[in-house]
Each structure stands twice: as C-alpha cells, then as structure tokens.
Amino acid sequence: MFCVACIVIAVFLLYTMRRKKLAQQVSPLGKYVLITGCDTGFGHQLAQRLDERGCNVIATCLLKRGDGASELKRVSSERMHVLALDVTSDNSVRQCVEHVRGVVGEAGLWAVVNNAGIMPLGDVEFYTMDDFKQTAEVNMFGMVRVTKFFLPLIRKCQGRIVNVTSVKGLICTTHSAAYHMTKFAGEAFSDSLRLEMARFGIKVSIIEPGDYGGGTGMLGNMEIHRKNYDRMWLEASDDVRQVYGRQYLQDCYSKLVSAAKIGRKDLTPVINCMEDAVLAATPCYRYLIHGGNRTCDIYCVLARLKAFIPTPVHDYLVREYL
C-alpha cells in the first residue's frame, strides 16, 4: 500500500510540475509570427489575437485586397504585415520568404502557423481527380511547401511550427474523403517533422479542431457548396447519375445546411490553443479541441475512442451519428 501511495504522489507531483511548465509563456515582444489563411476563420482571428498580445504578426491572405485582408489592416496595429500568399505556388511562397526575410532581419521567424485549407465535399464517385489534386495541393503540399521554405528563418531563433489539421485527420466520415486524406497526411507530416526538428530545438504542434464548421467559413458559405454539387452532377458519369440520382445530392446539401447550424461558431477555444502553441514555453504536441453546440462533440469523442473499439462498432457509430 505504501508503495502504491508513493507512486500516486510521484505521478501527481510530476503532473503538477508539467502543468506549471506548460503554463509558462515566452514574451511575445519582438516575436515574428507568420500565419497562412488569414482571409477568414481561425487564421483571421489568430492574427488579431497575437497582434493584441504584442507579437509582430505577418498575416498572409490568398486575396490581398479581399475583405479579410482589408479588415486586418483596418483593425490591427502598425506591427501587422498583411501579405498575399498562394500556398500552392512555389513562386508565391518564395516571394513571401524574401519579403519576410527583409522584415525580420537577424531576429528570425519565431513561428509559422500553417492554417490555410479548403474542404470540398462529395462522395468518392462524385469527386473528380482535380478535386483530389486541388485539395491536396492546398491542405497537404501547401503545408509542406511553406514549412520547407521558412525553416531556415525558424531555425535561426529555435522557433516553432504549428500545423492545423482537424479531428477529421483522426477519424473518417462519409462525403469528405479528399479532405480526410489531406488531414491524415498533415498529421503524419507533423509527427515526422517534430522528430526531425528536435535536434535543432524547433517545436512542432498540431491543432486538431473538432466540430467548428459553422464558424470557420468552410461550411459558412452554402452557395459555394451548392454550386459544387451542381458541378459534380454535371460532370458525373451516366452510371453514377443512375445509381445515386439527383435527389441524393440535394439531400446531402440539406444535411450540410443542418450541420453548419450544429457546428460551433465561437472559435475562441481553438484560438486559445493556437495562441498556446505559439507562445507557451513548452507547447503541447497536439491539441484536440472539442466543438459543436451540444453537450459533447461526437467527432472528438469517437477520435478518442477509436483505438479501443472494434472497427465495425466504430463504423456503426459514424453512420448513425455523423
């Protein structure tokens, strides 16, 4: 009994020490942080949050003259730099690196937050190969491209890389295979990168938001998804049209509208974790963040249980509840 009590006390003390260490933050002053995908959603709000904290934020947007970029310029401090960046283009990323190098000078780049992403929805038989390729180019290769180009500047100050994946990089549902593939890839890339960068003192964290579709912009613009379904129907083969029927896509759209209402619109929990990943002295390796507007986020619950339940049971729960 005495030995058990000693083990429990030791574990508690280690946990307490770990929590205190995690609570410590580095000073944001003089820290340069680059964020991709700041047009809307997580990136847009994180840019404002870190600017308020005193960081020198380099917010990159796909549309430099878009509404998101214009708002950041209007509401942020003079420390904020808003740049155009297409993560699918080597030339665009290279030009961004040269600009950032001139801005940060010898200070180096404290953090890169790979947040840019897209989420086209559809069944495998309705996706075109271009749908798969474009999603991978933004969500997967965009993350790799930005990381590789900016690593020399991050290494200069032993900074960190924060990669935004998703709970959908941990579990799969129907109707979003292209998105799942890229998010699983983001998880694998981040884990490998963390192991490789440890020798340089560079930290790598993964942000895994749960059901936040209602507030990110990915499910916010229903018109984009409606047009996407119309395009998929027009491009589908005669066999696929006959098997599924037009009503199937109409039903998918109706369910998507309902899902957007259920998804949590307040992004604060995710932004808090992203801030922690950037500024904590010892950031977590991964942050799985429950969302939704119900008692629990079924996506995150299933992600945590996946390793402990049989696949047929997991598949049944996904079909019934997701």
Key descriptive features of the protein:
322 residues, alpha/beta, seven-stranded parallel sheet, 14 helices
Question: Can you characterise this structure?
Answer:
The protein is of the alpha/beta class and about 325 residues long. It is built from 14 helices and seven strands. Helix 7 (about 175-195) links the parallel strand 5 (about 160-165) and strand 6 (about 205-210). It starts with a helix and ends with a helix. The mean pLDDT is about 90.
Entry summary:
With 322 residues, this protein is of the alpha/beta class. Helix content is 56%, strand content 11%.
Blueprint of the fold:
Blueprint: H1 2-23, E1 32-35, H2 41-53, E2 56-61, H3 67-75, E3 81-84, H4 90-104, E4 111-114, H5 129-139, H6 141-155, E5 160-164, H7 177-197, E6 203-209, H8 213-216, H9 222-235, H10 238-244, H11 246-262, H12 268-279, E7 286-289, H13 298-305, H14 311-321
Parallel strand pairs: 1-2, 1-4, 2-3, 4-5, 5-6, 6-7
Helix pairs in contact: 2-12, 4-6, 5-7, 9-11
